[in-house]
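Tip: read the tokens left to right.
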């Protein structure tokens, strides 16, 4: 059924109706806060203008079975990554010590700085045993030529600043509106209301933050969302702030790292973090995931200050480290999953969504992988330890790139098999214009986990939930997939 749709989607609509759909979508998005700040050259004074977020005009077909598998896997991934954060020996092995082949923290300044914060705070003793994880596991459909049934393969697992939960929830509502308000959106009866799954992402994330705030246990405390200066995706974040206030009566303040540097302090006795004399219950990061987020060394001091504090971190530095692409590569090695997940069928389920990953270090596997990448670059993507899109090296760019790296630099990358996604025709709406073409969709499943630092596997989980989804769609010509980085648009799945 899914395969049959690949050549007949989206439903045929006339030019006039397409124009009408475009207008309806733009106005619905502007009316319902599916918006971002405009690029600098279109902005009005005092941040007083917005544009609609980039959107898919039609929901993109996605196999129901594969979608449900993603939902099913999420509590397992939540648990797996929490257990990884508590495995100090493994983190040390991968980041630096014991194994001189890896030495990730030595070839990569950014990882080294995070790792140093991790070591410092572990040595001093952590002052907050509870952590909040808002993660997103991203998948592409894999349908190599000749295969009958597409399956999901994990692209990556995000443990910091997993964004677009609010706008994604609203994208489903927009597709429902288009269906209801026109009688041609589904001229061929493929798009049905019941095939557009409920998306709880916005509410689930807010509920997770509210629960962490409650566990912190101080009535007058507030949540801080740590943002990038000049954030264009501010409204995805504002929705969280408004819902937290309306539904839970919890305030969320917005601060950059630099602002916290000016206004924040730690109580030397209790380690409570205060910003502007407000005590901080939860420090929720939507920044600090890449080198560019640390404008000066002082910003690194602030990250350390927050990590030392009694606030509940979302995420902790340990979570950020285990979200690295290197750990995702290591997880595909035989026997690693089994250390954290005891049930055999759970292990098999997790493993079934892993694509081939290879080290690029000085080990014999690393040498073999580097040679393969030089010979058959079109089969691989090369990834550094970075987040936020725009960092990977693809296909025929790989050989020249690898040849320019020293061995210690090469070791900070991993190699991954290219996932072969089916193409689906759609129209993307960006800055008021439609772009028609063959598209690739990437499914994200959100997870909320509140855990403790208990060293055993008992009493470690307070909340473990699957927390809604995101579908991002990009033209097939584009390698990267980020929305904020300008490659993809927000979509919603049409379950087939
Ligand atoms: P980031 O953390 O920067 O988002 P990702 O691993 O998600 O890094 O890679 C960015 C994009 O590159 C993805 O959204 C996807 O579109 C594409 N991509 C990554 N890995 C693969 C892969 N193995 N096969 C095909 N495309 C991939
Ligand atoms: Mg990422
Ligand atoms: Mg990604």
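Filled-in amino acids:
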């Amino acid at each position: 059924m899914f395969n049959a749709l690949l050549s007949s989607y989206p439903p045929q609509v006339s030019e006039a109706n397409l124009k009408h759909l475009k207008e309806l979508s733009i106005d619905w998005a502007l009316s319902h806060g599916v918006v971002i700040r405009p690029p600098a050259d279109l902005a009005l004074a005092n941040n007083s203008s917005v544009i609609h977020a980039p959107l898919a005009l039609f929901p993109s077909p996605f196999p129901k079975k594969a979608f449900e598998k993603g939902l099913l896997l999420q509590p397992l991934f939540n648990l797996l990554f929490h257990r990884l954060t508590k495995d100090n020996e493994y983190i040390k092995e991968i980041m630096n010590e014991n194994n001189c082949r890896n030495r990730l923290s030595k070839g990569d300044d950014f990882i080294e700085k995070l790792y140093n914060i991790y070591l410092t705070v572990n040595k001093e003793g952590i002052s907050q045993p509870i952590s909040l994880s808002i993660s997103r596991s991203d998948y592409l459909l894999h349908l190599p030529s000749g295969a009958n049934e597409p399956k999901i393969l994990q692209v990556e697992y995000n443990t910091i600043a997993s964004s677009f939960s609010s706008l994604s929830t609203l994208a489903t509502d927009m597709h429902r509106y288009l269906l209801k308000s026109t009688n041609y959106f589904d001229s061929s009866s493929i798009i049905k209301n019941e095939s557009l799954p409920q998306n709880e992402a916005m509410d689930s994330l807010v509920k997770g933050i509210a629960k962490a705030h409650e566990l912190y246990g101080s009535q007058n405390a507030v949540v801080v969302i740590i943002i990038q200066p000049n954030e264009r995706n501010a409204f995805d974040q504002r929705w969280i702030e408004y819902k937290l206030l309306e539904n839970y009566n919890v305030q969320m303040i917005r601060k950059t790292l630099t602002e916290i540097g000016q206004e924040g302090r730690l109580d030397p006795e209790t380690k409570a973090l205060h910003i502007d004399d407000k005590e901080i219950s939860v420090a929720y990061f939507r920044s600090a995931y890449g080198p560019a987020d640390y404008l000066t060394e002082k910003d690194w001091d602030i990250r350390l200050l927050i990590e030392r504090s009694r606030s509940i971190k979302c995420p902790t530095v340990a979570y950020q480290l285990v979200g690295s692409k290197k750990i995702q590569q290591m997880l595909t090695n035989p026997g690693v999953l089994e250390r954290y997940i005891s049930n055999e069928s759970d292990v098999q389920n997790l493993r079934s969504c892993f694509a081939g990953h290879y080290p690029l270090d000085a080990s014999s596997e690393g040498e073999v992988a580097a040679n393969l990448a030089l010979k058959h670059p079109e089969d691989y993507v090369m990834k550094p330890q970075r987040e936020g899109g725009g960092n990977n090296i693809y296909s025929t760019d790989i050989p020249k790139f690898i040849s320019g790296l020293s061995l210690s630099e090469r070791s900070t990358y991993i190699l991954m098999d290219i996932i072969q996604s089916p193409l689906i025709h759609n129209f993307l709406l960006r800055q008021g214009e439609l772009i028609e073409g063959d598209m690739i969709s990437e499914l994200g499943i959100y997870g909320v986990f509140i855990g403790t630092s208990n060293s055993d596997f008992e009493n470690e989980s307070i909340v473990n939930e699957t927390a809604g989804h995101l579908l991002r769609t990009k033209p097939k010509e584009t390698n990267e997939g980020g929305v904020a980085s300008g490659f993809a648009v927000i979509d919603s799945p049409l379950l087939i």
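The domain at 356-418 is CATH 3.30.1490.50 (Dna Ligase; domain 1). The CA atoms of residues 3 and 146 lie 11 Å apart.
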